[in-house]
Structures are given as structure tokens and as C-alpha cells.
Specification:
The complex is a heterodimer of chains A (324) and B (312). By secondary structure, chain A is an all-alpha fold. In chain A, helix 5 runs parallel beside helix 13. Chain A is elongated, with a radius of gyration of 24 Å. The two termini of chain A are 24 Å apart. Chain B has 312 residues and is an all-alpha fold. Helices cover 74% and strands 0% of the residues of chain B. Classes of the chains: A mainly alpha (324), B mainly alpha (312). At the A-B interface, helix 6, helix 7, helix 11 and helix 13 of A face helix 1, helix 5, helix 6, helix 10 and helix 11 of B.
């Protein structure tokens, strides 16, 4: 029972409105939602606008530390100490006073802020693509398995059991050594094992509903299995599906970063959070700023998605029906 | 289902899964682009012929597959392409120790710290202490181990010079990689134990214990821990998988001579036999841990067996 249902006696409060009201009371989840919307907006914006060209290599401007006008007192002043020498690297490199690299430049003189914006977009795209594929395959498989004859269900479940025995890491490494890594191949490789939790969840929902009165009634009226699946089981499972989806996004973001970090994911000059971390790590001990920005971005994204997923789970599924 | 029948069923699935993995790995490896030989252009056709015969690469692929399988059953994983005449089994055997030590240390440190954090958070629930524990848990679950590893290396080893930057000499060089890997199990177990412990503390028998004059602290440590830690073993499966994944990068960052470090090198060098061996090793380990956890848990809680699957 939610508070809005009590105060708002005039209007019936639906499942989605109820859940939304519960979610709105979770401060951490709402803040995370804001952070995620901000990241998505900024990364979409990078399609049309980045402070500098993310791929332009300015040879005279290599390895510049961050400089933000007005924030010099916070350390973003373009001064750095390398091997005991403290100096204004911008002056030393002869950079014009009106040219600022907010997050510094890399070893090829590329603007790291622009690369970070593009990288976030690429990482989010891979995660989004993988999640949509997980969702589609998982839902269809789960519905088919859960609403079919016992024999079909058994065969489909045996298949899942074998597939679930294969570690995701192994699948990813094998596929990406064979396929040439790109946005699409990485997403597809993640889907090979990624759809399993969704399929199990949707099947469990189908089994839960299939003997309930409203389904039996619909069947008695001659509803086909497809109709039952799409009209009854799926709408009634949306809550747990949303929650499961939210948990699979951070895992996809992590695997992209992980793969690119060990050199199996996207290849330079493409930018993603993983490749930026990989490039930053080469010089991390003496030019830490090059890795810190993608580190912070990745961590903030991961925290935000995890917190939002937690909040959604409490909001959509307060009794913990769909927890696995 | 009886325990024996349940275990047998699981073993059959393990064998089938293993066979699928080995077969898929074998055929995928043969689709790999590139050549295992470093100086392919410089080799004369005769030399290539000799090398191919030596490694069995000129036989029909089905025959290679059967041969690989037969050898595998006798523990022979082939010869590494990367190191001269080095059997993969020997290559990996020399590296298992470091990985296992790292994994076990991380698991022990992580879960024991996680249990303590979880219990304290439950006892002091809805206080700032609890919120602090939640923040630790969320960070530990979200921040990837390789980011933590790089940060620890920069702050503790490079800037503060407290511990070795990399390498594998004495115990001090194992501390940083262990910490980097321990955060995830710490976060997972803290969260899990807190939930279970809150349930225990709100149960009737905790109420009775309180009526008998025990403090919340005493109830938690005397009664709660046993009840909330046993289900923790269901987390061992996912934890092991995460550790394996994390160890690939963490071992690289700290130059630990373990399986993960070798695996990344092998991938970059097209060393098929080693890649296959590590794949099989990891999958086998994963299956064994999952199996052990499920059987162990079905002994402790027979309800699991009736539903025919693990709790996860």
C-alpha cells in the first residue's frame, strides 16, 4: 500500500504510478536517475558538439595537465610536476591563453574531455545494445519455455543449464579473439550468456501465472498461447523485467571496460571508457590525470546504475517475488 | 529427489557442459586469424611443413580434435606456441600457485571483513554506521577491481611507497592485489549478511533471547552469525567467477606470475594451446565450485533439492 493511494482516494492508483511513487521516495535512486540522465544527455550531445575534435592530434600539445579557467585554485591550472620539475606546461608548450583542455591531453595531443564524452557514448551504446538483445532473447525464450508443453520446456531448460555452466569471461575472450572487436561484436558476445537470467525470470513468471484464474479464463474463451503470453504474462511481469534489465546494464558497461582494458575490446583510435582506461594506464604512475577522469566516470556510472537498480527493485517488487 | 540422484544429475550436466566448452573452444581456436608462428614470412615451405607436422597442424581437423581430446584425458594439453618446447601443463602448473594464493587470500579477507561489516551494520541499523557500511558495499560492488588495483598502486605504492609496486616476491607484494580483489566479495557478503542478520534480529527467538537479558550485540554474535553465514556459501559461486575475471587484469597490473597474466599474454600472441587450456581450466573450476556449493547447500537445506536447482 503506498502513501499516494491513501491520500489520493479519488483516483485509482495503478501499478506503475504506485511503483513510481515508491521510487520517488528513494533519494539515492532518484539522484542516480539524475546522474544517468545527465550522462546520457552529455554523451548524446557529443554527437554534435565536443570542446575539441576528439581525434585531432596536436603534436605540440601532448600530455598537458588539466586547465579550467577560473578553477585554477582547485589544481586545474595546467601546472604539473614531473621528475621533480614543476612548471606551467601550457606556457612551456606555447599553448595560446584561450585554449584550455579541461581534462588535459593524451600522449598524442588529443583532448581528453572530448574523448571522454565520446567514450561514454560508445560504452553506453554497447551496454544499451547488449541489454536490448538480452531482453528480447530472454523474454521470448522464457515465454516459449514457460507456456509450452512439459517436454519442450524440459529440453529448453536443459539447454540453458548447459549454457549457464560456461563462464561469461570464457565466452567473451574466445569470441573476441576470433571475431574482430567492434561495437556490435562486443554486444553480441555479451548476449551469448547474458540473456539467461532474463529467460529464467520470465519463465518463472509464466509458470507462476499459467494456472491462475485469469489465464485459465482466457484459455476457456479460446485465447491462443501467443495472446496469453503477450496480453497477460508479459504485462504482469514488466516490473521484474525492468529490474533485471537495470542490473544487466552495469554488468555490460563493466565487461566492455574490462575487455578493452586487457586489449580484447575496441581498438584505438576508437574511444570507449575501456580504451581510455587502457591508454591512461600506460602512463598512470607519472601522468595520473589521464586515467583518473575515465576512472571516475566509469565508477560514477556503475554506482548510479547499481543504486537505481536497487531502488527499482524495492519499488517494483517490494515483496521480493522476482529476486534470484 | 534424493541427494545421490541430485548429485548424479548435476555431474552428468557438468560433463556435458565441459564437452561443449572443449569442443567449442577447439573449433573457435581454429577459426582464429593470424598464424602461431612469429616469423611466418621468413619460413621456407619445408620449414613450415616440419613445424606443422611437429604440432600436428597439417592433419584433418577432426583428427586433430580427437587427438586433442585423447591427450586431454591423459593431462596432456599440448605444447605452447609461445615458449619453445614448453608443454602447456608445465607452463600453467608453475603459475597456478600464485593465482590460487591470491584468490584464496582475497576470498578469506573479503568474506571475513564482509561478515563483520554486515553484522555491525545490522546491529546498528538505521544509524550513520549502517549508512557507512552501505556506502562501502555499493562502492565495492560497483567499482571494478582493476580500477581499485590501479588506484592502490598509485597511492600506496608509488606516492606513499609503503608497499612494492608490482612483482611477486614476499608476502608484502601480495597485499595490494589481494585488497583490490577482496573488495567485491567484501561488499557482496556484507550486504548479504546484513539482510540475513536483520531478519534474525527481528525473529521471535531473538526476542526471547532479548527477554532473557542478552544485548543485541550478544544475540547477533551468538545466534545470528551462524544463521546468516551458512547461506553465504551460495554466494561462493558468483564470487569465484568474479575473482577469476578480476584476476586477469589485477595480475597484469601487479605483474603477478599467475594464470590470468599468462592468459592475457597468450591471447595477444595467438598461443592457441594455452588459451584452450586456461579456458578449460577456468570452466572446470567454475563448474566444480558451483557443483560443490549446490550439493553442500542441499545437504544443509534439503528444500533446495526438491526444487531441483540452486538458490541463485
Amino acid at each position: 500500500m503506498s502513501a499516494t493511494a491513501l491520500t489520493d482516494l479519488g483516483k485509482p492508483s495503478g501499478y506503475w504510478a504506485d511503483s513510481w511513487a515508491r521510487l520517488k521516495r528513494k533519494r539515492a535512486a532518484m539522484m542516480s536517475l539524475g546522474v544517468i540522465i545527465f550522462f546520457i544527455a552529455v554523451s548524446l550531445l557529443s554527437l554534435w558538439f565536443t570542446p575539441h575534435n576528439p581525434n585531432a592530434q596536436t603534436i605540440t600539445h601532448i600530455n598537458l595537465p588539466p586547465r579550467i579557467p577560473g578553477l585554477g585554485w582547485l589544481g586545474f591550472d595546467g601546472v604539473s610536476t614531473i621528475a621533480g620539475v614543476t612548471q606551467d606546461r601550457y606556457a612551456a608548450a606555447g599553448v595560446p591563453a584561450d585554449v584550455n583542455y579541461w581534462l588535459g591531453t593524451d600522449g598524442l595531443g588529443r583532448d581528453l574531455l572530448s574523448r571522454l564524452l565520446v567514450g561514454i557514448r560508445v560504452s553506453l551504446s554497447i551496454a544499451g545494445l547488449a541489454t536490448v538483445l538480452d531482453l528480447s532473447v530472454g523474454i521470448i525464450y522464457g515465454l516459449v519455455s514457460g507456456l509450452n508443453k512439459q517436454r519442450v520446456d524440459t529440453v529448453l531448460q536443459r539447454f540453458i543449464e548447459v549454457l549457464a555452466g560456461i563462464p561469461t569471461l570464457v565466452v567473451l575472450v574466445l569470441l573476441l579473439t576470433v571475431l574482430s572487436p567492434g561495437l556490435f561484436t562486443i554486444a553480441v558476445a555479451m548476449v551469448i550468456t547474458g540473456w539467461i537470467p532474463m529467460a529464467r525470470l520470465v519463465r518463472a513468471q509464466a509458470l507462476r501465472f499459467r494456472d491462475q484464474e485469469f489465464i485459465v479464463a482466457a484459455q476457456a474463451l479460446g485465447a491462443s498461447r501467443t495472446w496469453l503470453a503477450l496480453r497477460h504474462v508479459l504485462p504482469n511481469s514488466m516490473g521484474v523485467i525492468v529490474v533485471q534489465t537495470m542490473f544487466s546494464i552495469p554488468s555490460a558497461i563493466f565487461f566492455e571496460a574490462f575487455l578493452s582494458f586487457i586489449g580484447l575490446g575496441l581498438r584505438p583510435p576508437m574511444a570507449s571508457l575501456g580504451t581510455l582506461l587502457n591508454e591512461g594506464f600506460q602512463t598512470f604512475t607519472f601522468l595520473p590525470f589521464q586515467m583518473l577522469a575515465p576512472m571516475v566516470a566509469l565508477s560514477v556510472l556503475m554506482v548510479a546504475f547499481n543504486l537505481l537498480a536497487d531502488g527499482l527493485r524495492d519499488a517494483f517488487d517490494p515483496k521480493g517475488v522476482g529476486r534470484i | 529427489m534424493g541427494l545421490a540422484k541430485y548429485a548424479l544429475r548435476r555431474v552428468v550436466f557438468m560433463v556435458v557442459t565441459m564437452w561443449v566448452i572443449i569442443t567449442a573452444t577447439f573449433f573457435l581456436m581454429h577459426l582464429l586469424p593470424g598464424s602461431p608462428y612469429v616469423n611466418l614470412q621468413k619460413l621456407t615451405p619445408e620449414q613450415l611443413e616440419i613445424l606443422n607436422t611437429r604440432y600436428g597442424l597439417n592433419r584433418p581437423i577432426l583428427e586433430q580434435y580427437l587427438l586433442y581430446f585423447a591427450n586431454l584425458l591423459t593431462g596432456d594439453l599440448g605444447t605452447s606456441f609461445q615458449f619453445k618446447n614448453q608443454p602447456v601443463t608445465t607452463l600453467l602448473a608453475g603459475r597456478v600457485g600464485a593465482s590460487v594464493q591470491l584468490g584464496v587470500q582475497a576470498l578469506l579477507v573479503g568474506t571475513s571483513a564482509g561478515i563483520v561489516v554486515g553484522v555491525i551494520a545490522a546491529v546498528k541499523r538505521h544509524t550513520p554506521v549502517d549508512s557507512g557500511a552501505t556506502i562501502v558495499a555499493v562502492l565495492g560492488r560497483s567499482v571494478p577491481s582493476f580500477i581499485l588495483a590501479a588506484l592502490l598502486q598509485l597511492v600506496v605504492a608509488v606516492n606513499l611507497r609503503l608497499l612494492p609496486i608490482a612483482g611477486w616476491r614476499d608476502f608484502s607484494s601480495t597485499i595490494l592485489p589481494t585488497l583490490a580483489l577482496a573488495m567485491a566479495p567484501l561488499a557482496d557478503s556484507a550486504r548479504f549478511v546484513r539482510t540475513e542478520m536483520v531478519e534474525v534480529l527481528e525473529s521471535d527467538y531473538a526476542e526471547l533471547a532479548r527477554a532473557n537479558g542478552l544485548s543485541t550485540q550478544q544475540i547477533a554474535w551468538r545466534h545470528g552469525v551462524r544463521n546468516s553465514v551458512i547461506p553465504l556459501i551460495t554466494l561462493l559461486g558468483p564470487m569465484t567467477v568474479n575473482l577469476l575475471t578480476g584476476s586477469l587484469v589485477v595480475e597484469n597490473i601487479f605483474a603477478v606470475p599467475g594464470i590470468g597474466e599468462q592468459f592475457v599474454k597468450s591471447v595477444l600472441n595467438n598461443d592457441y594451446p594455452t588459451i584452450m587450456a586456461v579456458t578449460i581450466l577456468y570452466s572446470g573450476l567454475f563448474l566444480l565450485v558451483t557443483f560443490a556449493v549446490d550439493v553442500l547447500y542441499s545437504i544443509i537445506d534439503p528444500r533446495i533439492r526438491l526444487s531441483g536447482g540452486g538458490r541463485r
